Amino acid sequence: SPLATYQETVFLNDADMVMSFVNLVEYDRELSPQRRHHKEFKFNLSQIPEGEAVTAAEFRLYKECVSGAFRNDTFLLRVYQVVKEHLDREADLFLLESRRLWAAEEGWLEFDITATSNLWVMSPRHNLGLQVSV
What we know:
Helix content is 13%, strand content 31%. The strands form 2 sheets. It has a 4-stranded antiparallel beta sheet with strand order 1-6-3-4, with no helix packed on it. A two-stranded antiparallel sheet has the order 2-5.
């Protein structure tokens, strides 16, 4: 497959800057048993210059092939924006996207998080990260 699709190439050509951010969560904190299939992701967007508009933002995950007993199964992957954290219970989440995937599928999954990224840039205190559930 090509490195960039036509649409991605158009975005890249129009951009004055392309940035990549790594996940700051090294160790997942213990989530409740109901959320044991959730993973947290946090990104520091403070490098984006003040006043700059985020024209496109993608959250990318690499999905490996699941073989064996589950090979023919599908599962639902959901990406959430963390809206509010609580000391005494699980965080409030806002569903950004859900996608049904084949276990045997392998490759990059891309999720549009442009609106969420713009919120985080304009109001860094709202940057509580993402959660992914399977």
